[in-house]
Write a structure and sequence with these properties.
Blueprint: E1 7-10, H1 16-27, E2 31-36, H2 39-49, E3 53-57, H3 63-73, E4 76-80, H4 96-117, E5 121-130, H5 143-162, E6 167-173, H6 181-184, H7 187-200, H8 209-221, E7 229-232
Parallel strand pairs: 1-2, 1-4, 2-3, 4-5, 5-6, 6-7
Helix pairs in contact: 1-8, 3-4, 4-5
């Protein structure tokens, strides 16, 4: 470990964004601690990323599980919280159990992690939360995403005051190509959606997990950014 090495906690390592972020931070020389609800999936993700990553099982919707995770982690420098479930449905077709699960993971889960993490995080550290551009650009079927994301963005600004000098920021991703799309809709529909989005975006492509990882690294590394919602959407809000 060098003088610049920091301990960084990332929740939900089985997701594409979390895995890309972990790889990026390991490549930058940091020690990364990750989580997943399933032990086998956690081990597989750690093995895939390789040296520099350790992990513990955690369910972000379970307060006792979250507390136990951070107890096992001990003191650390930065917290990154991309863990969340996903669902899309118009209001008239809403699956309220799936919507509740999304809100519990994406908003309640992040809040539990911040609550427990704040007890052990360095005063020079940071917390990077996750929202989504559906908080700013309406998308049919994204009610639960938008509600949870907007709540998280608002809470982050309050926590930037409450937890100072720890910095608190939010990543606001646009359409990112990750395996989660296969869980949201049939494969052909997912491909068509991503292709249509890429054609419409000013940058000519949808996002990659690595695009978000670069944003996380920036928010961790820049000590003068606080209470900010960093939109990384390829210009989606413009079209």
């Amino acid at each position: 470990m060098t003088d610049t090495t920091q301990r960084i906690v990332i929740t939900g390592i089985t997701g594409g964004i979390a895995a890309a972020t972990a790889r990026k931070l390991v490549e930058s020389g940091h020690d990364v601690i990750v989580s997943a609800r399933d032990h086998d999936k956690l081990d597989a993700a750690i093995t895939e990323i390789g040296e520099g990553v350790t992990g513990h099982v955690m369910d972000v919707t379970d307060a006792e599980s979250v507390a136990a995770f951070f107890e096992a982690v001990g003191p650390f420098d930065h917290l990154v919280t991309p863990a969340a479930s996903a669902m899309f449905a118009p209001l008239r077709e809403m699956d309220f159990e799936a919507a509740r699960k999304l809100i519990e993971t994406k908003q309640w889960g992040q809040m539990l992690c911040v609550y427990e993490g704040a007890k052990r995080i360095s005063d020079k550290g940071s917390i990077t939360l996750f929202s989504g551009t559906v908080t700013q650009k309406p998308l049919a079927g994204a009610t639960a995403f938008a509600a949870a994301g907007a709540a998280t963005e608002a809470a982050a600004r309050i926590w930037a005051f409450e937890l100072a000098p720890v910095r608190v920021n939010t990543i606001v991703p646009g359409i990112i190509k990750t395996p989660i799309w296969g869980n949201l809709m049939p494969e052909d529909a997912a491909t068509a959606t991503l292709d249509a989005t890429a054609e419409a975006l000013p940058v000519g492509r949808v996002g990659r997990p690595e695009d978000i990882a670069l944003g996380v690294e920036f928010l961790i590394g820049n000590g003068f950014v606080n209470g900010h919602a960093l939109v990384i959407d390829g210009g989606h809000r413009l079209v």
